[in-house]
Amino acid sequence: MATDNGGTVITIDNFAAEMSQYSTGAPNQLYGLVDMGSNGIRFSISDLSVPRLLHCIYRERAPISLYDALHESGPSSRPLHFSPTIIGRVADTLARFASICESYSVSKGKISVFATEAMRTAENRDEMLAAIKKSSGLTVDILSPGMESLFGAMGARSGYTAVDGLFMDLGGGSVQMTYVNSDIEDGYDVLAAGAARSLPFGAAKLTLALSTEITAQSTKVELRTRMKDTFDELISKFPNLKRQSESKEGITIYFCGGGFRGYGSMLMHTDPIQPYPIPAIGGYTVPGNRFVKWQEMLHVNNYEEGKIFGMSKRRREQFPAIVSVVQSLVEAIPKIKQVIFCSGGNREGVLYIKLPPAIRESNPLALLPGAALNQNPKVLESVVQTMLTAMPEGYPAIISPEILHFVARNTWQAMGDPDGANSAKALHNPITGMLAGLPGMTHEIRSVIALTMSARWGNDLGRVDRGVHDNLRALVGYETGWWCDYIGTLAGFLATIMPALPASEKELEETVKMQAATSSGLGKKGHHVGIRLKLLVSPKAQRGSLIGDLEGMFKKVGKGMPLKWKVEAEVEDL
Predict the structure, then answer these.
(1) SS3 track for 276-291
(2) How far apart are the C-alpha atoms of 218 and 150, rounded to whole Å?
(3) How far apart are CA 423 and CA 50, in angstroms?
(4) Going by fewer Cβ within 10 Å, which terminus of the chain is more open, N or C?
(5) Which of 260, 248, 305, 304 is nearest to 284 (CA)?
(6) Any idea what DSSP says for residue 394?
(7) What would the DSSP string read from start to end of 480-512?
């Protein structure tokens, strides 16, 4: 029962009333969140000035395992009880977080503290809640299993424009499974939460159960049985999921939670592309036929002595338990198409649920920062349409209108910096720069943006960055990489004949027109295929430039690739 110290159990029925809502009228849009998970306590401050981006401006993790704290084996330990020492550590940690919120001017009403499996099962949780309230002034909400599933799934979902697949969260005390299809209807989030199931096989709990022969075998059998039953229940409720499970392609799975991210880190460590060019796990996508190779991942964990990026000592100790969950999942699902690892979790889910539906369902790619203020959207749309006239049908679908708009918004930025510096900045921006922590992008989309914007500056890269560039190109594939080169070169061409963003649509129209068609018989010997590009440029825009130099910009497209596709550009007077 809830008290003045907290302890309200948040359920599907009461979460809208019990949790604070997003408001545009507040002095600032800063929100503090504390996720008291079973494996650690995570704290963050997010700025919702551009709400859909859920921009995190501060994050910290306290390595306090509440699950381990409930299962201490000391002489004075009591089962399922937090010791006075742990209560003191947690209270001090929350006091620190409250102080940080105060220094960032986060109002008390915008700080949410929530706890999951370990706090749900603690028999003296009221003592913990009272100590936290006394030290920090904060109250703690307890998430029901359904709400834990909802927040985890929505946190993972927040990273993408549209989703359709299983959502799973592996924490320290439990593993959650549900199905989310953002195209179903209004209220798909609550529908997913109602169908969600929480299984008591978190990484920490399972590690303990597998550590003794008495419980190991029976636990594995129960895990496999309940995983299969849970998946079968979901396909009985969702016809679309059932169709996917019976198809040749199979099912897409979205993973969040530290346990699954640990498995993703191991897959990234052993990825065929090495060194893997994107450090963040969020958006990392793996085909099903590679995901299922859990024996190989376990072997690497057991025998590789060096540091594995993204894997703490504790996570490696729990890895056999994580693999057991993966193995049971592989046995339960007939065919896995792909898995996508997500950076978002409960904290992002809490923020995402606060937002109005229209904001939640908007495309985050259209909101990515970096461009100058006060750009005319009509002019930018005209720039995009001009580029599209130079793109014959057949270019990869991943090159979306939102990506082309990002290119247009950023083509005329940093014009005073050297091409080499701009190429390097553009290459790193989506993977380790300003865009690295923002939603809307799988690793493939990050790579497309990086390669395209680097090409806008002529791919003027040093040896180290050339290695990153080539591995990003390997990640998207040579065909998509070629189009990134081509579109980036188109952007560079526009900035050459118009050194400033056109002031109006009319100015753009009077300066350049493009015509393009796929063609064979290209190259000196006529042995190549590619694009025949006609560039109609006003005489004024040509002044001071040699036609051969303008046409020559396109000769570098696809350089170093085995495709041998060519672009033959011809400049004529408009």
Answers:
(1) CCCCCCCCCEEEHHHH
(2) 29
(3) 27
(4) N
(5) 260
(6) T
(7) HHHHHHHHHHHHHHHHHH-SS--SSHHHHHHHE
d(CA 106, CA 557): 49
Q: What are phi and psi of 567, to 5 degrees?
A: -120, 120
* Rounded distance between C-alpha atoms, residue 165 and residue 250, angstroms: 10
Contact in structure between 288 and 339 (CB atoms under 8 Å): yes
Using an 8 Å Cβ cutoff, are 143 and 102 in contact?
no
Q: Which two tokens stand for residue 303?
A: 């025998």
Strands (E) across 342-441 are located at none
In contact, 530 and 518? CB cutoff 8 Å:
yes
Provide the pLDDT confidence category of residue 2 given band limits of 50, 70 and 90.
low
What's the rounded Cα separation, in Å, for the pair 48 and 23?
Answer: 10
Query: To the nearest 5 percent, what fractions of the chain are helix, strand and coil?
Result: 50, 15, 35
What is the Cα–Cα distance from 541 to 125, expressed in whole angstroms? 72
- Listed residue (443, 470, 152) closest to 286, CA to CA: 443
518 touches 392 (CB < 8 A): yes
DSSP symbols for 293-341? -HHHHHHHHHH--S--TT--HHHHHHHHHHHHHHHHHHHH-S-EEEEEE
What is the overall mean pLDDT for the chain?
92
How many Å is the Cα radius of gyration of the chain? Answer: 26
pLDDT digits (tens, 9 = 90+) for 413-462: 999 999 999 999 999 999 999 999 899 899 999 999 999 999 999 999 99
Q: Is the confidence at residue 7, as pLDDT, over 80?
A: no
What values do phi and psi take at 229, rounded to 5? -65, -40
pTM to 2 decimal places: 0.93
- pLDDT surpasses 90 at 476: yes
pLDDT at 14: 86
- Please give the pLDDT value at position 22: 83
What is the C-alpha to C-alpha distance for residues 160 and 152, in angstroms, rounded to an integer?
14
Counting residues of the chain whose pLDDT is more than 70, the rounded percentage is 99
> Chain centroid to CA 150: how far?
17
The amino acid that residue 147 corresponds to is: M
Residue 129's closest CA among 139, 114, 116?
Answer: 139
What distance in Å separates the CA atoms of residue 571 and residue 552, rounded to the nearest whole number? Answer: 10
